[in-house]
Design brief:
The protein is of the alpha+beta class. The protein folds into two domains: 26-318, Beta-galactosidase, Chain A, domain 5, CATH 2.70.98; 322-755, GH92 mannosidase fold (2-Layer Sandwich), CATH 3.30.2080.10. Helices cover 27% and strands 24% of the residues. Helix 8 runs antiparallel to helix 9 and helix 8 runs parallel beside helix 11. It starts with a helix and ends in a 5-residue tail after the last strand.
């Protein structure tokens, strides 16, 4: 017995070292000045709760019109700001539009103030000044000193519960504000209704309904305090409410336990001793107050803040250790920050009991899967979901099941386009869920019914009333008169149709395969051979006369110009190259894209991109051209792919607060970084091929769910040695510029031999 104990104790250090502390390399506060910052605050991987500071509350509306400054607050947090207005529990990571920001909580002390005040005069309200010197942001943890109230605010989280810890000074006027009006991309009528029930002197439950980017969104909450409050109250700021019923018989402003209205802020009063800690737990649910409370009891039953924080960090380390890289310390920061961003979205949507609210507003059970939401599919089909198929296949399987469930519940019978809280907000173009579904089935990740999945893809692609699909089916393109994004829609539908064809081929549906392969060639209807560019076409079949290849407006494109979209044929680069005049001309055209100079007028048309997010005319900060640098491989000039990939990695990704060349878009920018750093990239999801580039690590070990490992080694890799001389797969030379998905999933070793000179 003692001998066994001795050997067990001897083995413990090796167990402890099995998982590295990679979370220390994560820098959560990173983004762009124009976009606000990709900063979910305290969260766990794929967590429903993202507990983060709001640095201002900018209205979406100003004088009856769109307020352009609201764009800076997509994430709620802006690094350049100097005040914090509170901490809310739901956020989006680096999106170009926004919503959420539910249940803002703010600790204060002194005279009670129920309005947030202004950034110019923070003491005029409950907001507080803060300094980045007194701010700590880590994976799963956030801490800041609120200077105006001398309060230390700390927060951490589990999947569905946010936990706050506030260290107060001595005061008989300590307060915790619960702002049920506040939200991101807020406007006066966004709150549809709010209900609050004070259960006892330390537990409050309720819900909030909003009409924003998600049109029908209800979030339920349960809020528990570690210390009983001595008093509480509320103020209703709704000036439009006409009918009040007979509730005026009660004084609802103080110590009244049942509240309802559109614009409510609450306060809870405490006496505090010096350095006294008051903790708050806020659990959320899409289904009910009871489920929110059940989530809280299941995930944080007690009040040990440090234990919850420790577990959140462990959860992050478990995910980050799925890829262990050997590279410089600076590049480790970039790599693991990208991993962190890639594992924020999509977010868990069902409760601990499996229930969730569907887009039919009914309550459903996720019996054999985790239901996810927050699908920014126009972005994430390109690299994030393909990345999940390698490193998070179980989760991606569940994500595809979530999309199919959305389709089953939909009255429109369409797969999601951009889904949040099981609402489709229909943002951006294409029907790219079919890419994610196909890619998962082609790569053996999805274990549901592939026939039903194909039927859902086909139904979505034939929904004639949606964004020009009817014209696309009838004409093979979308007339400019019918859509301001006619060209980009046609190009993206053509790629999606190619995905459907691949799925049909796998299922031996030859008639469907032939039909959709034909549709996948529709991009040619917008290709103008006389100019060599994609160009808007009118209903009469003629090309648009006032064609401006540089402009982003009025040309039929979204988030890009013709220079970037003209290369968007990921399903058939060889035919695109042929139509553009052959490999030499094509490579020269790519050279021009990466070296041209954009006039200042270009940036006047872009809300989300600055010059720092662009290399020549290549817009890395937006997604349509993310595959383009790999197209040199098809033009027999792979050394240009290699050098330009490494250039993009250095120029567009830094560990500073303004370190991204564009918004992260729910992990797409970060997934591009991860793939490209490892030396390969999925140019056309729906294919099982990855195109080779230039690895920016000395080595990397991918820990696959099967228990196998796939190792990337780059011999002689350095900032100068960016060119690949040869590649070995399991010791055998590769003759192609691609590897297969199976090559990775079977385990093994991919070895690059690097040099400072191109291998022409």
């Amino acid at each position: 017995m003692k001998k066994h104990l001795f050997y067990s104790l001897l083995f413990l250090p090796f167990l402890a070292n099995a998982q590295q502390d990679l979370a220390k390399y994560v820098r959560p506060i990173i983004g762009t000045e124009k976009m606000g910052h990709t900063f979910p605050g305290a969260t766990v991987p794929f967590g429903a709760v993202q507990l983060s500071p709001e640095t201002d509350t900018i209205s979406y509306e100003q004088n009856g019109k769109y307020n352009g400054d609201v764009y800076k607050y997509c994430a709620g947090y802006k690094y350049e700001d100097h005040t914090i207005v509170g901490f809310s529990h739901t956020h989006m990571s680096g999106t170009g539009h926004s919503d959420l920001g539910d249940f803002l909580v703010m600790p204060t002390q002194g005279k009670l103030q129920m309005n947030p005040g202004t950034a110019a005069d923070p003491k005029s309200g409950f907001r507080s000044a803060f300094s980045h010197q007194n701010e700590v942001a880590e994976a799963g943890y956030y801490k800041v000193k609120l200077d105006d109230d001398n309060i230390i605010a700390e927060m951490t989280a589990t999947n569905r519960v946010g936990m706050h810890q506030y260290t107060f000074p001595k005061s008989d006027q300590s307060h915790i504000i619960l702002d049920l009006m506040s939200g991101i991309y807020n406007y006066p009528d966004k709150n549809v209704w709010t209900y609050v029930r004070v259960v006892n002197d330390s537990l409050v439950t309720g819900y909030r309904q909003t009409n924003g980017w998600a049109r029908t969104r209800t979030v339920y909450f349960a809020m528990s305090f570690s210390k009983a409050f001595k008093a509480y109250g509320q103020k209703n700021y709704d000036k439009k409410e006409i009918y009040h019923g007979f509730w005026g018989k009660f004084d609802q402003s103080k110590n009244f336990p049942e509240l309802a209205g559109k614009q409510i802020r609450m306060y809870f009063d405490f006496n505090t001793t010096e350095q006294e800690k008051i903790k708050v737990k806020m659990a959320i649910s899409s289904v009910s107050q009871e489920n929110a409370l059940e989530n809280m009891k299941a995930e944080i039953p007690g009040w040990d803040f440090e234990q919850v924080k420790k577990q959140a960090k462990a959860d992050w380390n478990k995910e980050l250790n799925k890829i262990v890289v050997n590279t410089s310390e600076d590049d480790k920061v970039n790599f693991y920050t990208a991993m962190y961003h890639a594992f924020i979205n999509p977010t868990t949507y069902n409760d601990v009991n499996g229930q969730y609210k569907g887009n039919d507003q009914g309550v459903h059970d996720a019996k054999d899967f985790t239901n996810y939401t927050t699908f920014s599919l126009w972005d994430t089909y390109r690299a994030l979901h393909p990345f999940f198929n390698i490193i998070q296949p179980t989760r991606n399987n569940d994500m595809v099941k979530s999309m199919i469930a959305h389709y089953d519940q939909s009255t429109l019978k369409m797969l999601p386009v951009w889904m949040e809280y099981n609402n489709d907000n229909w943002c951006m173009s294409g029907y790219h869920s079919v890419s994610v579904v196909t890619d998962a089935i082609i790569k053996g990740v999805y274990n549901g019914d592939p026939e039903a999945a194909l039927a859902a893809c086909i139904a979505t692609s034939n929904h004639r009333s949606y964004e020009g699909i009817g014209y696309y089916i009838d004409k093979g393109y979308i007339p400019l008169e019918k859509s301001g994004t006619s060209v980009s829609n046609t190009l993206e539908y053509a790629y999606d149709d190619w995905c459907i064809a691949q799925l049909a081929k796998k299922l031996n549906k030859q008639d469907v395969y032939q039909e959709y392969m034909k549709r996948s060639g529709n991009w040619q209807n917008n290709f103008d051979k006389s100019t060599g560019f994609m160009r808007a076409k009118k209903a009469d079949g003629t090309f648009q006369k006032n064609f401006d290849v540089m402009s982003t407006n009025g040309q039929g494109f979204i988030e890009g110009n013709s220079w970037n979209y003209s290369f968007f044929v990921p399903q058939d680069p060889a035919l695109l190259i042929q139509d553009m005049g052959g490999k030499k001309k094509f490579a020269l055209k790519l050279d021009t894209l990466f070296t041209m100079h954009l006039p200042d007028a270009f940036f006047a048309e872009t809300e989300d991109i600055t010059r720092e997010g662009i290399i020549g005319g290549y817009v890395h900060g937006n997604e349509p051209a993310h595959h383009v640098v790999y197209l040199y491989n098809w033009a027999d000039q792979p050394w240009k792919t290699q050098s330009r990939v490494r250039m993009i990695l250095k120029m567009q990704y830094k560990s500073s607060p303004d370190g991204l060349g564009g918004n992260d878009d729910c992990g797409q920018m970060s997934a591009w970084y991860i793939f490209s750093t490892l030396g390969f990239y999925p140019v056309a999801p729906g294919s099982d091929d990855y195109s080779l580039g230039s690895p920016a690590v000395k080595s990397a070990v991918l820990q696959l769910e099967s228990g196998k490992t796939f190792t990337v080694e780059a011999v002689n890799q350095s900032d100068k040695n960016v060119y690949v001389q040869k590649v070995l797969l399991n010791g055998k030379p590769l003759t192609a510029l691609t590897i297969k998905h199976a090559d990775i999933m079977n385990g093994g070793k991919l070895t690059f031999y690097m040099s400072s000179k191109p291998a022409k």
